[in-house]
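Researcher: Here's the sequence for the chain we discussed earlier.
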Amino acid sequence: MDIVYTQCNPVFIHQYALSKLRALGYRTAVCSNSVRNSVEVMMQRGGLSPYLELMVSNEDVRNGKPNPEMYTKAMSHFKLDPAECLIIEDNENGIKAAKAAGGNLLVVQDVMDVTLSNILGRIDEIEMELNQ
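Model: Thanks. This is the structure I predict for it:
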């Protein structure tokens, strides 16, 4: 837990992305294979908690990633169809879980790729695919 306190600091691009997405009417959640306390502390230390409507940890499900249960739990909470959801993932187990949940996927190399531009760009791609 010490690493969380020393390494988790607010990153403007992430705060901006989440605040703008919320302002645009998108609902946001985090689904993490970490224990609840770690997820909550990381989101608080990163200044992201105010922009998240839901946090799902490995303690909230029977099966963690690569099982899709975290994502289906979040989708159910929001009463959304998987096709209405964008899941951002950066690791193999998360990607497998996202695909199994049926949501749209944005694969990033690391957290610094989680930008408003990348997110809105992927949403535009999904909407263009739906309109074809």
